[in-house]
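WARN retry 2 of 3 for item q-0093 after timeout on previous attempt; input resubmitted unchanged.
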Amino acid sequence: MAVTRESTPDYHGPRRHAEECEAARRWLSVPYVIDGVLVHVDDVDVHYRRARDAGARILSEPEATGFGKVYRVEDAEGHRWLFTQA
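OK item q-0093 returned
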């Protein structure tokens, strides 16, 4: 059985948590991914454009870092994802 918000009313994803908690609102006010998901992709720019065009909440544009090119995004529940290309 799939778990949905309706079947688990006690679950609070990051976005819902922030609706009720000032500290969570402050945590989510910066674009960083602290406890999110790191995903390696073949082409960050292509992945970024697809996510943006699909309406994802973009936290940061693609940028070169010391460990590759990255961008950050938030899903519908407020979970944060960091996509990286070596």
